[in-house]
Write a structure and sequence with these properties.
By secondary structure, this protein is of the alpha+beta class. It has helices at about 1-15, 25-40, 70-75, 80-95; strands at about 20-25, 55, 60-65. The longest helix has 16 residues, at about 80-95.
Length: about 100
């Protein structure tokens, strides 16, 4: 994860209008937490949970199970739960534009 931190920082820095980061799985969530710690945020209590939303001020994170064949075939991630997370992300991204 630390090997990719430079690239993640660059990508986030390029997105001047960033409002939402959708993290697919615990690895993505942990990578984002690593980035946020480098920016001085205390994210110790931020645990991955499907559908969980974290507000970081300038943007929000929406957590989602990774849409892998295993998560889909076992029912951990259903079509409905995936669509629900996408709707949440969309609603948050539109806040302030009403």
């Amino acid at each position: 994860m630390e090997n990719c931190l430079e690239y993640l920082s660059y990508e986030i820095g390029c997105m001047k209008n960033l409002r939402i980061i959708l993290t697919f799985g615990t690895v993505a969530h942990s990578g984002l937490n690593l980035y946020l710690r480098t920016k001085g945020l205390d994210v110790r209590g931020n645990k991955f949970s499907h559908g969980k939303v974290y507000d970081y001020g300038s943007f929000s994170e929406v957590c989602c199970y990774q849409p892998s064949p295993r998560n889909v075939s076992t029912g951990r991630l259903t079509r409905e739960s995936f669509i629900s997370v996408l709707r949440t992300a969309r609603e948050l991204s539109l806040k302030g534009f009403e």
